[in-house]
Amino acid sequence: MKKNLLIILLLFCSFNECNAQWTKINLPNNWSIAQMQFVNDSVGYMIADSIVGLSLAGKIFKTFDRGLNWYEKSFYYQSFDYLYFINEDTGWICMTDGGTGTIRRTINGGNTWTNICFNAPHGPMFFVTPLVGYIGWIAAGAQGAVLHKTIDGGITWNSVGVNLGLSGLQDMVFADSVTGYVGGLYGPTLGRLDLTVPSYNVFSTNIAVSDMDYENASAQLFFTGEEFGVNSGLYKTTSNGSPINLILDAQSGFGAYSVNCKNANEILCGGYGGLIAFSYDGGINWNTESTNSQTSFTDVHWGSNYAIAAGGDGEVYRKSLPLSFFENSAVNDFGIYPNPAENIINIKTKIEGELTVTIYDVLQKKVLEQKITPFEFCTIDVSALQKAFYTVVLSNAKKEIIGKQKLLLK
Description:
By secondary structure, the protein is mainly beta. The protein has two domains: 17-320, Methylamine Dehydrogenase, Chain H; 335-408, Sandwich (Immunoglobulin-like), CATH 2.60.40. Helix content is 3%, strand content 50%. A hairpin with a 7-residue loop joins strand 24 and strand 25 (287-290).
């Protein structure tokens, strides 16, 4: 039994590289993508840089159709470094010109931009409201990044008195209006901000962080990084930074670069060499796919029925996906208890007639099917299934899906 379990785990944890149907999105040639952000399921933005004549230039692109088409919104003879949109209409870009920072803001979805701050702090941005935002800035001669705050939509910025101590600041995300996380390349490379004090709690000093995403429902921080002397991997930790777990090991042949969490279970990771990895169970098991390119994906996004990945070399790839297989869809009083479960589960529903319960594993393989005729509830034996995440699907005699529920066997 142990031998069989080991074989199953090895199969799950192996990378089933396949020739996935990733489509290259056509963008203007020779534009290096600096950042991509989606503000909802349909609308997203990208900033990109290139050399035009003898000068650096920047472009802003926007999609209205889940990344199928991208339209040029603005062009400037300045380098675009950082982008942040708080909603579909309001966003900011941080640009450099001769070493100084300029912040521009739009309030009409990128149609027009206004210079709102010259000689501005320059670094990753995050806005918690249209007026309140933060920038981690390493000023000339400073020993590390210092957190700056605006309360007027980016027009003026002031230090909040927190020296992050790190250099090469890469990313900043906030869980709420007073709790944030920052990651960088050197020094105390990962930590949590508490702006009620304010203070900075260091999580790590030996993992050079490249990208982060915070999953609010599970209060987990996912980040890609390189432990000094080791190839890049994907890590996750709790909101207090302990423990830090490596969940996608570079030794498996996948160098993690960027991450996006659709929810606590569905995680998308962009890698080097045109590879992209999916997890449907919170990072326990992974499946990798190739875009048949050599790009390194600096930003990824998992939408409702699609995934999209953008590379620093200007290549963007997109793949259509089925609607989330693991979203709960409880109707007509359909429920499962206990959950998590061990050997049995009870299906509760008031639907009359013959029903079918089908259980799928994280790879969407059917592992159990049973017909039931419930009154209030019925019991199903799941003791033969491995301890893992599953999806339970309830359907009627016409094979119409009535509802879906996630299940954890422990």
